[in-house]
């Protein structure tokens, strides 16, 4: 549907606009006198016969605008979905019945839970691997249908060597058709990583997080270059009804306009906090890959971790990540979280507030938790 509607949108003058220019100028209506500057929210289920889209489950002008920007950021064609998990499920639908998936033994808990469910139901087979150990992943690849990667890993912040994994997957392709390589790029965002350029076949995002960036919508996206794969993902979206609401997509596009600015401040804040936390007496380990807006700390015990989360004031004790506001939570409070995630690990999603306020609040909460003083 994006291709059919491509002529309805323009970008800035440059053939290959730089990232900031693309974020701001992509997916805008064609500039004719009186034209709207923003694509309007298109609230229609059906359209008069003869146009590019006839029914709302197959396309929407707001989807096209959002997909235009995200697709060009990632270097492929994007398809928007109703949530990150809808995009994950679409990518997993590429596995033939009974096919084998090589997947990280810890990673986003929704993806792990879906894979485990599909394995229990006999839909596919899962080989759980330590995704940072490229050698052991490589040994599992011959005959596999799909390799799932996530970089950095949620919430342990490990960074798998995606180019090496792609090379290994390609080498294994002599045996059958697979494995396809899928990368969940939610944590890195296309500002830090464009996995399609590393040879990954499908990129998925929870656009709920950094892309939309304001904790006000759930949305997902899948991006690929291969038209046959895109056709299957698009058909999955339409036939499973895994579609995004036009209003949610509009909000996500509005959020996307400032991704680079939010990202710059969030990354600077995260780097500053990571450095200070490394020397904090109440912190036993800081997990920070050296980039991005997410970090994790270990604080000695789950009780202490809960006490830190209860004692904050500037930070919000809530799940999710990638928004303008700083959030924290102890991940193992979720029963479905992989057991290899430490029980005392607190994930920090660093927002765009003043870093001194973030630090003062966190420092106070950590000291209170360590001394047993109620927050
Ligand atoms: C949140 C998240 C998802 C799922 O996205 P939803 O929008 O919540 O459905 C998938 N992958 C990662 C890495 C996430 O953080």
What's the arrangement of secondary structure elements?
Blueprint: H1 2-5, E1 9-10, H2 19-25, E2 28-29, H3 61-74, E3 77-81, H4 84-92, E4 100-104, H5 109-120, E5 125-129, H6 134-140, E6 146-150, H7 162-171, E7 180-184, H8 189-192, E8 202-206, E9 220-224, H9 227-239, H10 246-256, H11 259-278, E10 285-287, E11 294-298, H12 302-311, E12 316-317, E13 327-330, E14 345-349, H13 355-371
The chain binds pyridoxal-5'-phosphate.
Pyridoxal-5'-phosphate (PLP) is lined by residues 83-85, 88, 108, 110-111, 150, 154, 184, 186-187, 206, 208-209, 218, 220.
The low-confidence runs, each spanning 5 or more residues with pLDDT under 50, are: 1-14
Whole-number mean pLDDT:
94
The largest β sheet comes out as: 7 strands, mixed
| Broad structural category | alpha/beta
What is the terminal-to-terminal distance? Answer: 53 Å
Give the CA-based shape. globular
Provide a descriptive summary of the structure in words:
By secondary structure, the chain is an alpha/beta fold. It has 13 helices and 14 strands. Strand 6, helix 7 and strand 7 form a beta-alpha-beta unit. The chain is globular, with a radius of gyration of 21 Å. The N terminus is likely disordered. The structure holds pyridoxal-5'-phosphate (PLP).
